[in-house]
## 1
Amino acid sequence: SVDCSFSRGVCDWKQEADDDFDWNPADRDRGDGYYMAVPAFVGHKKDMGRLKLLLTDLKPKSSYCLIFSYRLAGEKVGKLRVFLANKKTAPVWEQNTGKDERWRTGKIEIFQGAETTNSVTFESERGKGKTGEIGVDNVILISGLCPED
C-alpha cells in the first residue's frame, strides 16, 4: 500500500491552477499532523477548488483501491467529488451532505485497462453555508480490490 496522507505521505499532490480557490492544510484535533480542508466561507456559491493526486507506476490491467477519510461539516457546506483522470466527465464518487461533523471513509475502485489512470482529483464545490468545512485526510492507495467494510 502507498501512504498518500498529507503530513507524511510519499505521494505527489498539486493544487490546480485554473480553479477558484486552493485547499489549505488544517491541524488535526489530536495534534499529529494535518489534513486538507476548504472552509465554508471561502469563495462564492458554486466556486470550485481542486486538489490533484498524481499517480505514477500503476500497472496496466490491474486493480487498485483508493481509501480516504472525509467530512462535510456544517449545513449546506457544499459538495465533495472525486474524478479519475481517464473519466473526466463524471465523478466516480460524490457526497453533498454531512449528517454530522464526524469523519467517514470513502473508497474508490481504480481499474487499470490499457489506459492507466495517472491522477485522482478531489473537487470541493462551495455551497450556501457560512460555517463548517470540507476536509480530506488519510489517503491510501492499495493494490487489489477494495476491502468490504
## 2
Amino acid sequence: IHSFCKKDDHNKENIFNTINYDVAAKKRKKDLLNNKAKTQYFHQEKWIYVHKGSTKERHGYCTLGEAFNRLDFSSAILDSRRFNYVVRLLELIAKSQLTSLSGIAQKNYMNILEKVVQKVLEDQQNIRLIRELLQTLYTSLCTLVQRVGKSVLVGNINMWVHRMESILHWQQQLNNIQITRPAFKGTTFTDLPLCLQLNIMQRLSDGRDLVSLGQVAPDLQVLSEDRLLWKKLCQYHFTDRQIRKRLILSDKGQLDWKKMYFKLIRCYPRKEQYGDTLQLCRHCHILSWKGTDHPCTANNPETCSTSLSPQEFINLFRF
C-alpha cells in the first residue's frame, strides 16, 4: 500500500506539471497572436462587397473593420501613388473611427502605422505628414483611454497604453531624423534657370512646403515670396467665394496672397488630390484599388468605377 501511494503521488505530480505546461504553452501562443503579431490579416481577394443589409444571398453587412482588413493597405503604402491616400485615411480613422474597428482591425491599423513610420525613417520623406498623423492618433487615444470604463476601446487598457508609448517612441525617432545630403554633385535645383525653378515650385500643393523651400537658400527665399505662386495656390484649393470672404491687403494696397492662404486653410478644408485611389463599382458594389480585377458582370467594368476620397470611403460604412 505504501509503494502504491508513492506511485499515485508521482502520477498526480506528473499530471499537474503537464497541466501547467499546457496552460503556459497556450498563454504564450495567445500572447504571440494578440500582442506580438506584426503581419496584417491576410485574405486572398483584394476587393470587398459593400452592402448595407442582409439578403438571401449574403448575411450581415460590410463593416469598416472588415474593409480595412481585406483591402491590402500594407502593400498600398509601398506604392508612392497610394501612400498619401492611405495616410489620409489613417488620419481620418484616428480622429473619429477607431472605435468602429474590430479588435483585429485595430491591430492591423497599428501594424500598418508602424510600417509607415519605418518607411519614412528609411527614405526620409513625408516626415511632417506622419508627425501630424501620430499627433492626431495620440490625442484621440488620450481621450478614449480616459473613457475606458465605458468600453469604447476593444482590448485591455494596458495594451493601449503600450501602443501609446510606441507612438511617443515613433515621434521621438522622427524628431531625431537628420536629413543627409546626397553624394551626387551634378546639377542641383538652384542651378536651374529661374523659370524652371518657378515651374517646379508651382507643382507644390502645400504652402508649408514653399516656406520650407525658401529657407534653403537666399535666392529661393525670394522666389518663394512670389505673389503669383501664392495666388495660384489659393485658387487651386479654394473657391472664388471663399477667397472673397478672406481678402487681406498688404501695406502697398495689393492682395497679400500668402497671408490669405494661411488664413483660408484655418477656415476651409484644402483640395485633396491623389495619384491612385480606391474605387467603387456602381454595377456590382465592389470596392477595390484601381487596376485590381474583380468579378464584375458589366460589359465595360471600367466605365462603372467611381473614385472615392478617403472621407467618401469612410462614409460608405456609416449606416
